[in-house]
Design a protein that fits this description.
mainly alpha; 0% strand
Length: 69
């Protein structure tokens, strides 16, 4: 995997996580507690899949792209 492609995919994946976090923020402001819990689980699950299925693979090829290390 070329670095430029890895960077582009990382940026898109991190952008998706940002957007999902925004969805959760809107839900916290406007949903009742009973409605919020399934949303939290769904958003958390998707963020987890993005991390494990996309970002971990990218960082395996290009560990220097992982800003958290």
């Amino acid at each position: 995997m070329e670095r430029q492609h890895a960077e582009a995919m990382r940026d898109l994946a991190l952008g998706a996580i940002t957007d999902l976090t925004r969805i959760l923020a809107i839900g916290q402001e406007h949903f009742a507690a009973a409605e919020l819990e399934p949303l939290r689980r769904a958003v958390g699950g998707v963020i987890g899949r993005i991390q494990t299925d996309i970002l971990d693979g990218i960082y395996g090829h290009h560990p220097e792209l992982d800003d958290l290390r």
